[in-house]
Amino acid sequence: MEELKAQLAANIDQAQWEWLIPHVQRDAVVVVDRQLDLLDVGVAISEDHVTDVQRWISEQQIYKPSPQQISDWNGDQTKQFNALIIQPFVLVQEA
Fold this sequence. Notes:
Blueprint: H1 2-11, E1 13-16, H2 17-25, E2 29-32, H3 38-46, H4 50-58, E3 62-63, H5 67-74, E4 80-86, E5 89-94
Parallel strand pairs: 2-5
Antiparallel strand pairs: 1-4, 2-3, 4-5
Helix pairs in contact: 1-3
C-alpha cells in the first residue's frame, strides 16, 4: 500500500479547468471535498475500498460536478484544481 500511495502522490498535479473539460464531457470527473485528502481517496478507489467510497458518496464528499459548478468553472478559465487520474476517473479538488 505504501508503494501505491507513493506512486499516486507523484501523480497528483495542478490542472486548469480548460484541461478538465474533455473529462467532464465524458462524465469522468469526480469532485473530492476539501475535507478529504485527495491521495487517500485515490488509494481507496484504486484498492476498491467500497465501504469508504460508498460512505463518501452518501455524505456527498465525493460527487460528480453539478451543472451549476460546471457553469461557474466555465466562467473562470483560470480556475485551478489538484488532480489525480485513477482510471477511468479524474479526481479533482479545488485548489
